[in-house]
Amino acid sequence: MATTKAKPRRQSNAWVENIKTIIYAGLIAIGVRTVAFEPFNIPSGSMIPTLLVGDYLFVAKYSYGYSTYSLPFAPPLFSGRIFGSLPKRGDVVVFKYPHDTSIDYIKRIVGLPGDRIQVKQGQLFINGQLCPRQPEGDYTTDDNGVRMVRKLYMETLPNGVKHEILKERDDGWVNNTPEYVVPPGHLFAMGDNRDNSADSRFMDGVGFVPTENLVGRAEILFFSIDAEYPWWEFWEWPSEIRWSRLLKPIH
Question: What is the mean pLDDT of residues 41-51?
Answer without folding.
Answer: 94
